[in-house]
UniProtKB/TrEMBL annotation:
Pathway: Lipid metabolism; Phospholipid metabolism; phosphatidylcholine biosynthesis; phosphatidylcholine from phosphocholine: step 1/2. Residues 79-207 form the Cytidyltransferase-like domain. CDD domains: CCT. Residues 1-34, 313-375 are annotated as: Disordered. Keywords: Coiled coil, Lipid biosynthesis, Lipid metabolism, Nucleotidyltransferase, Phospholipid biosynthesis, Phospholipid metabolism, Transferase. It comes from the Eukaryota. This is choline-phosphate cytidylyltransferase. The keyword Transferase applies.
Length: 375
């Protein structure tokens, strides 16, 4: 029931995503889905292990009926076959397209045996049991047919009640036929799918063959013996020697990378240190010039100190010219005690001399000067 409900949910989303022409947009993403497993929880069963179908006659559905959607109890039975060697994403995408051809489908996948594959196509990397198991664990597969036929017969189609056969539309020439699906196409039972470019079993094998030495050395390093790898004694020693040389090269490369990183770090640190030195040197030079430059603070300090020192040790200068007698302030006068207040004012002094005259400080200075002149 859970698987059916999940299938209905996915089909409903697919129908909502269909365009006006009824074709699903290939690159569009599905919306968010609830957190439970949409695909089957168990591997797909093998066809020979299932219970036989009822005895009702099997009637195929037409392409129109299949595209419209069939009832849940009557899914469209789509068959896809192949070798599926080295199962990869190209195989899974082809099966996904086959599963999504119709709204309600049941995908049956036929896997050819080693005998048929080696006869018509070539040697495989994986044996048939490994290929069966790989296919049945693909989430899009509902049923696996082991030992599938190389060419589809009407009896095989009727036995497995197949409505349509899904495969890419390229002519598949094999077993003496130009296209093994020619009669299927003529019967209107062919449903084409698209190949995934850039990946195939042949491409993967080509990579391994091209890089054979690399993969041999890889497996020898992981513990496989030369006998298991079908490698001679000489080639084994050669591969071991190459591995040692490569180790030395890797070590040298690592040392070079580390040395480059170290040199780069040293250069970055040296650049930072030089920048800091330059900034400090500019600051030091600026401070030095501010203190000891031509107009620096030291010069002003010396000038100021010199001026103060000269001012302290030098005497006060006398005025350049003495003021005249008229400009001098009058000296206070006084009278000798023997002059009375009623005596007349003294006359101007004469060389003949007079008994009574006024004496002032200026007269004393003049007398001193006269004496000096007489002397």
């Amino acid at each position: 029931m859970e698987a059916q409900s999940s299938h209905e949910l996915v089909m409903a989303r697919k129908r909502r995503r269909e365009g006006s022409n009824g074709e699903t947009e290939e690159g569009e993403r599905l919306g968010k889905i609830p957190r439970y497993t949409v695909g089957l929880k168990n591997p797909a069963p093998f066809a020979d292990e299932l219970e036989p179908a009822d005895n009702k006659p099997y009637e195929r559905v037409t392409m129109e009926e299949a595209k419209k959607g069939t009832p849940l109890n009557r899914p469209v039975r789509v068959y896809a076959d192949g070798i599926f060697d080295v199962f990869h994403s190209g195989h899974a995408r082809a099966l996904m397209q086959a599963k999504r051809l119709f709204p309600n489908s049941h995908l049956i996948v036929g896997v050819c045996s080693d005998e048929l594959t080696h006869k018509y196509k070539g040697f495989t990397v994986m044996n048939e049991d490994e290929r069966y198991d790989a296919v049945r664990h693909c989430r899009y597969v509902d049923e696996v047919v082991r030992n599938a036929p190389w060419t589809l017969t009407p009896e095989f189609l009727a036995k497995h009640r197949i409505d349509f056969v899904a495969h890419d539309d390229y002519p598949y020439s094999s077993a003496g036929s130009d296209d093994v699906y020619k009669h299927i196409k003529e019967a209107g039972m062919f449903a084409p799918t698209q190949r995934t470019e850039g990946i195939s079993t042949s491409d993967i094998i080509t990579r391994i063959v091209r890089d054979y030495d690399v993969y041999v050395r890889r497996n020898l390093q992981r513990g496989y013996t030369a006998k298991e790898l079908n490698v001679s004694f000489i080639n084994e020693k050669k591969y071991h020697l190459q591995e040692r040389v490569d180790k030395v090269k890797r070590k040298v490369r690592d040392v070079e990378e580390k040395s480059k990183e170290f040199v780069q770090k040293v250069e970055e640190k040296s650049i930072d240190l030089i920048q800091k030195w330059e900034e400090k040197s500019r600051e030091f030079i600026g401070n030095f010039l501010q203190m000891f430059g031509p107009e620096g603070a030291l010069k002003h300090m010396l000038k100021e100190g010199k001026g103060r020192m000269l001012q302290a040790i030098s005497p006060r200068h006398s005025p350049d010219s003495s003021p005249t007698r008229e400009e001098r302030s009058p000296s206070p006068t006084f009278r000798l005690p023997f002059f009375s207040k009623t005596s007349p004012p003294p006359s101007p002094p004469h060389h003949s001399g007079a008994r009574g005259y006024l004496i002032s400080e200026d007269d004393d200075e003049d007398d001193d000067g006269d004496e000096d002149d007489n002397n």
